Amino acid sequence: MDVRSMKDKDSPLKVQELAYELKVEDAMSKDIVTVSPDDTIGDVRKILKEKRISGLPVVENGNVQGIISIENFIKSIMDGGRDQRVKDNMTRELKFINSDEPLIHAISKFEIHGYGRFPVLNRETKKIVGIITKGDIIKCLLKKLEIDYHEGEIQTYRASHLFKDIISDKTTIILCHKIKGKDYNKAGEQSGKLKVNLLRLGIPSKIARRVVIASCEAEMNIIIYTDGGELRALIEEDKIQVNAIDKGPGIPDIDKAMMPGFSTAPDWIREMGFGAGMGLPNIKNCTDKMKLESHVGKGTNLEFIVNLSYDST
Questions:
Q1: Residues 197 and 117 placed together within one structural domain of the fold
Q2: What is the model's pTM?
């Protein structure tokens, strides 16, 4: 389920774009079935059988204490029987996802941890508001794909016409989008605005997707590692050039930063779903050209280019 990978950069998947645009709350199940720490393994067995599920969050006063999976259940039955308490058999190493995170973060966590489900918490209250599984993500993406298919992606005016209508030796449209550092719940927001503008200009949707996926990754890096920056898109007749600029700490080893899986993000950032070490490789994979300039203590200028082709849809 690695929708972050893109081997064919000329045919980016709509599903990948959706994974950046949608939030966890769009896919999660709000019908939460839970057990308490003092419930018995017999209680767990009954719920698992009736609901046909393979795991349950253990909740007390709205706070998640752990997870009891089918593996925990089987082990407890083998060790002692149905009268054992949930609190003595649950997995206490809690991994969770916030409801306002981009769906791509949930996908990354499933790949990293290999879990069957994650409790979804409200970022502010820390209370459980849902459960998300791989099946929930797949159903959500398929439903959104169906909606988009029926609505269509109508473009009434193409950027190629716009440039032909303007009399000049060279025409460039510049779009600037400011990014606030450490504002994690708004990750991807400025890239979303860039997408709207590109489509309004008549940029073919397939090309716009490539630009936006790369921009989302760049935006997340600015949010995680710096106090802020901007996305600056230069649109010309034959290409779109995007510069993600910040005055952050800089990258000491660019070659190492380009390696898949490498990340300098601290553990607490990784726990939020960020910093998986796939950002720069993903940007390179879905663009036609990429250049990275960075100076320690001064900041970074990431530039990528996507060539325009107006027979794309």
A1: no
A2: 0.65
Q: Which residue has the higher pLDDT, 161 or 226?
A: 226
Tokens read off for 208: 């716009």
Domain containing residue 165: 157-307
Nearest to 217 by CA among 262, 278, 289: 278
The owner of tokens 């760049």 is: 218
Query: How many domains are contained in the chain?
Result: 2
At 12, the pLDDT band (50, 70, 90 cuts) reads: very low
Residue 65, phi then psi, degrees to nearest 5: -95, -20
Cα dist from 40 to 24, 33, 73, 78, 85, whole Å: 31, 15, 10, 14, 4
Residue that wins the pLDDT comparison between 203 and 309: 203
Residue 90 sits in the same domain as residue 212: no
**Are 190 and 133 part of one and the same domain?**
no
Sequence-ordered list of residues with C-beta below 8 angstroms from that of 80, at least 6 positions apart, any chain: none
Gap between the Cα atoms of 42 and 35, Å rounded: 11
The domain boundary, picked from 143, 171, 204, lies at: 143
What tokens appear for 241 in the block? 């050039």
- State CA 264 to chain mean position distance: 18
